[in-house]
What we know:
The protein has seven helices and nine strands, in the order αααββββαββαααβββ. By secondary structure, it is an alpha+beta fold.
Amino acid sequence: INAEYMGKMLVSRGVSRLCVRRPHCLFMSTTSFIPNGPETAALGSSPSEPLDIRSFAADPFEQFKQWFAAAQKAMTDPHSMTLATCGSNGLPSARIVLLRHFSPEGFTFFTCYESQKGRQIEQNPNVALVFHWPPLSRQVRIEGTVRHCSPATSDEYWNCRPRESRKAACASMQSEPVADRASLLRAFQEVDELYPDSAGADIPRPPRWGGYVVTPRMFEFWQSGNFRMHSRIQYQHSDGQWNMRTLQP
């Protein structure tokens, strides 16, 4: 598909050539929609070849490993991921968290168990993850269930964090209201005085802070395509094995 072909097709159907450069906006509207960037830039950033399921690994964790390695070379924060949760009230919420480890056991991140996401996870362990890697025009969607890491794993990661980050985690009751910034800073100061750097005092991990592991039941590997003809390869886990299929954009 190219612009000349699209133009001829539209003219043959009685549509003005004035619309050819934006074939997805063929209607009159008073709404001010957010425009796309320059079409040439969008096309230039799209991979030249669509995804082919025959070239994908049979194991989605292996496929993720390959894509993640490419993302690490292309950008500074490939481990940023959207975590979507939904509590017992049926109202979803989402936020960015950081992937700290992945293996066939699952995808690990760390946070406060008493935060909004922690409370929602306790009510409903079904979650979704999204990785977005713009330089590669790729996304990975994951759906699955989440559980706590072992205390040993949480301790191991806690102890490798910068001291100031550990102090902040101790001082902050994540997601709870605070009177003002000064109150939060006073709480941090109290922790700082309790565990002074000069004494090299150990900062114990609070019981409310630790890790989660997401066990996937679905992966979707998405890659941008010209004229929104995107590529989508999905893995679904059923009866102890991963089944693959190609989805329409």
